[in-house]
Design brief:
α2 runs parallel beside α7. The strands form 4 sheets. Strands 1-9-10-8-11-12-13 form a 7-stranded mixed sheet, sandwiched between helices. A 6-stranded mixed sheet has the order 3-4-2-5-6-7, with helices on both faces. A 3-stranded mixed sheet has the order 14-15-16. The longest helix is centred in the middle third of the chain and has 16 residues. It contains 12 helices and 18 strands. α4 links the parallel β6 and β7. The protein is globular and about 70 Å long. The chain folds into 3 domains: 190 residues, P-loop containing nucleotide triphosphate hydrolases (Rossmann fold); 159 residues, P-loop containing nucleotide triphosphate hydrolases (Rossmann fold, 3-Layer(aba) Sandwich); 91 residues, GMP Synthetase, Chain A, domain 3 (2-Layer Sandwich), CATH 3.30.300. By secondary structure, it is of the alpha/beta class.
Length: 476
């Protein structure tokens, strides 16, 4: 046995007195409404991005997107759902309705969107009915209030029995301040890290395609049959947490359902249970410090694996690649599988690739050690003095090229945050640093400081300067 279960059983976020916020999970806000009321426009405005998170997330319907957002000092996750209209004859509506309900089950707060430019429609009444049944805090807005005259259209929607409706124009950013304040007021209370030691327990989300051996890995680590293991894909339908003690260290293993291509999940003829499983897996990845991507070495790395790895990268999670079932391969085939994985996942060369057999236990210990190192690197901080001594060497060896005949000057560097390590470089021309030089700086940071197993982000910010009147301005 390489580890043991704390208390002899699995733990979920709300079990054993573990506060919900202590899992590291960000609160989730779902945007719901009938088609064409401006949900996606609102989504982009609140995330302050154009088409934020446009990657093709496995298991998510075409109209359901996720993005991080920051409102009045609170971090959260926004979900843009498909247009809800049960009376529509569109065959996709059944799948969209399912995904809307799944989003409501996971949401902490819901923003219900109405259209101030038209009277309430039957689909609006169905949406109101659905959100009342959800038992979630709901903030209602009437969108498309682009002028004071159009804002008068809000009154017609009070016949739906709603106590308060916020007039908003997502297109022109009218009323968004009041909306953000209402959302933050409705969020669960934030839990301070100093009062919640669970925040420091590393969380390892084990993800991958069905039948890659995720549950077998958990069973091998805990030394007993804690997860149902079956050769049929889709056995695990929920994310389950296991608190593991190994060599005096604690970690939480999050076993997740297999992520399939979206054409195989609900909304495109698949199982509603599987759609819920994919949503739970994505949420588990959000809660994790490090993601172990399990790949069946016999099948080899595929497009879906690359998408999962890309999702972990974009979410800023540490990543370890686990090629499982290598006991069934010859030595040459194992080497070929590693080379193929390196080629397909070339966008994350910093992620270690480990070979193992969850069935026999071969390589499992080394895999967990790699995950533990990735957690340390993910949380690591470099002092400003150390970072700038290094940066001076980088600039002396290879200064940045000019942009449009304008010299680009880099002044200093500091690490702004960890999880993942994020550095900020002060410059006179934040848009003038060529992408190849940006890549060079990241590579130099890795060469000096390591950061194996975690993404590293470097942002360039214009240096502030003072105008003749003594006021601080941003220098572009």
């Amino acid at each position: 046995m390489t580890g043991r279960i704390k208390g002899g059983k699995r733990v979920r976020p709300h079990d054993h007195g573990i506060p919900a916020g202590a899992t590291g999970s960000l609160p989730l806000v779902a945007i719901v409404g009938r088609p064409n009321v401006g949900k996606s426009t609102l989504f982009n405005k609140l995330t302050r991005k154009r088409l934020a998170i446009v990657e093709d997330v496995p298991g998510v319907t075409r109209d359901r997107h996720y993005a991080d957002a920051w409102m009045l000092g609170r971090d959260l996750v926004l979900v843009d759902t498909g247009g809800f209209d049960p009376q529509s004859g569109d065959p996709m509506q059944g799948g969209i309705a399912t995904h809307v309900r799944l989003a409501l089950e996971e949401a902490d707060v819901v923003v219900g969107v109405l259209d101030a430019s038209s009277d309430p429609l039957p689909a609006d009444r169905e949406a109101v009915k659905l959100l009342r049944q959800s038992q979630r805090p709901v903030i209602w807005i009437a969108n498309k209030c682009d002028s004071e005259k159009q804002a008068l259209g809000v009154a017609a929607h009070y016949e739906l029995g709603i106590d308060r409706i916020y007039p908003v124009s997502a297109l022109h950013s009218r009323g968004l301040g009041d909306l953000e304040e209402a959302i933050v007021d409705a969020l669960p209370e934030a839990i301070e890290g100093a009062d919640t030691p669970w925040l420091d327990v590393p969380r390892i989300a084990i993800v991958g395609r069905p039948n890659a051996g995720k549950s077998s890995l958990v069973n091998r680590l805990v030394g007993e049959e804690r997860q149902l293991v079956d050769s049929r894909p889709g056995t695990t339908v929920d994310s389950v947490d296991t608190l593991l003690e190994r060599k005096g260290e604690q970690m939480v293993l999050i076993d997740t359902a297999g992520m399939r291509k979206k054409k195989r999940v609900a909304g495109s003829g698949g199982s509603n249970v599987e759609a819920a499983s994919v949503f739970a897996a994505i949420r588990a990845m959000e809660r994790g410090d490090v993601v172990i991507l399990m790949i069946d070495a016999n099948d080899g790395v595929g497009e879906q694996d690359a998408k999962i790895a890309g999702l972990a990268h974009d979410r800023g999670r540490a990543l370890v690649i686990a090629l499982n079932k290598v006991d069934l391969l010859s030595k040459e085939d194992r080497k070929a599988a590693v080379r193929r994985t390196q080629e397909i996942l070339a966008f994350a060369p910093w992620a270690p690739i480990m070979t193992l057999s969850a069935k026999t236990g071969r390589g499992v210990g080394k895999l967990i050690e790699a995950a533990s190192r990735a957690v340390v690197e993910h949380r690591r901080r470099v002092t400003t003095g150390e970072a700038n001594r290094f940066f001076e060497e980088v600039l002396e060896k290879h200064p940045p090229p000019s942009m449009n005949h304008r010299p680009v000057r880099l002044y200093y560097i500091t690490q702004a945050q960890s999880r993942p390590p994020t550095f900020v470089v002060s410059t006179n021309h934040e848009d003038g640093v060529h992408f190849s030089y940006q890549r060079y700086v990241v590579n130099q940071i890795r060469e000096r400081f390591g950061f194996e197993g975690t993404p590293v982000r470097v942002r360039y910010r214009g240096k502030a300067k003072r105008d003749p009147a003594g006021k601080t301005q941003s220098q572009s």
